[in-house]
Amino acid sequence: MAINNFLLFSLTFQLLLLLRGSSESSRITGDVSRTPKKFLELAKSPDLFDWMVSIRRKIHENPELGFEEYETSKLIRSELDLMGVKYRYPVAITGVVGYIGTGEPPFVALRADMDALPMQEDVEWAHKSKVPGKMHACGHDGHVAMLLGAAKMLQEHRQDLQGTVVLIFQPAEEVFAGAKKMIEEGALKHVEAIFGIHLTNRVPFGKTASLAGSLLAGSGFFEAVVTGKGGHAAIPQHTIDPVIAASSVVLSLQHLVSRETDPLDSKVVTVSMVHGGNAFNVIPDSITLGGTLRAFTGFSQLQQGVKEVITKQATVHRCNASVNLTPHGKEQVPPLVNDMDLYKQFKNMVGDLLGEESFVEASPVMGGEDFSYFAEAIPGHFSFLGMQDETKSYASTHSSLYRVNEDALPYGAAMHASMAVRYLKDKDSKGSNSKKDRTLKPLSDFITTLFIVHWIFL
Ligand SMILES: *[C@@H]1O[C@H](CO)[C@@H](O)[C@H](O)[C@H]1NC(C)=O
Ligand SMILES: [Zn+2]
Ligand SMILES: [Zn+2]
Fold it and tell me: Can you give the residue ranges of the Peptidase M20 dimerisation domain (predicted)?
């Protein structure tokens, strides 16, 4: 009798454990719904916060330009090694792609860029750039620190992940080529959605801004050489003056937007560089000019227009012109379009994590971001995380006085981590697992009851 009871007891117990194991996801759903706030608390804890700040400062002191982020990449890999996170390297020269979770689908990616800008820092502080003429003036040092912070939290909670989080540390955002190369080298393999966060001083501290649809414009560059025939400035009839031709080009380019574009469609053509001549009494042989063009739609037509205006205006003035649409390897990027479903998920996540009032509906900006390559390849969502406090002392991006409000780092880390967890959870509840849970849950509950009843009467 006792042996029979014992057998029944252990059999029931084992069955229960088995069912508990396979209905794991239904149990975790409860945990995950509380996760967002937990991630913010964790990210703000002195240990994690100080660690993120120290990483950000190390990178800030040693800024590296696009595709040269060797030390930054090394730092990232050594931190991932310490966490026990597996990664792929090199991807696009210096890029790193880390993996946290089951190693199984679904795969959701979080992205940070690593590169600095070729400009001199004018902020005097303890961790000022140690490299003359190079500076992190776009906050990419902060982006790396935030994603590493998220990685640490996700790795500690990896048993809660119902899929795989892919960490994308990307080179060369500022020259618009890094994301493209990462994709070419397989960074998005298996990945079905991607999220990116950019620090900004245009949004109040602790708030985040995004929108569904077109957020940032397609961006491209041009450089043109207008060639004439130089000579004495007082004997113009023996020259072909490229200064007049180039001036005409600059003015005519304005009409592409003012006369040829629907006034309700936003486009920009800016000539930002004009170089040529170096004497008062000499007409130069050539003038070099360059600038940028931006559009949400009809980008290639605008490019074509720029090329045509430059060459034809040069011809009017008997000059020749050559036009380069990818000068100095500066690639063009498509417009950045946020996926509607991901936008909704993101907005809900922000509501849970920071409160609904912390979400700001963004307005489109004519700036460009090469995250758009990712969002073009798969559904993507890009958002801005605010850093501006009541002192209003934070300068704009790409300013030599730019500073990162380091108190924003935990917000970015928590947003990354929460978004990944939520995406995988939503995916899971829509996926086949939910069916399994529905059939197993009542069975599991029944056996629990049986077990308790049995135990009471034993
Ligand atoms: C422009 O190009 C044509 C054809 O190559 C050449 O004949 C002409 O001399 C060039 N004009 C100038 C001003 O360079
Ligand atoms: Zn930038
Ligand atoms: Zn940037």
Answer: 218-309
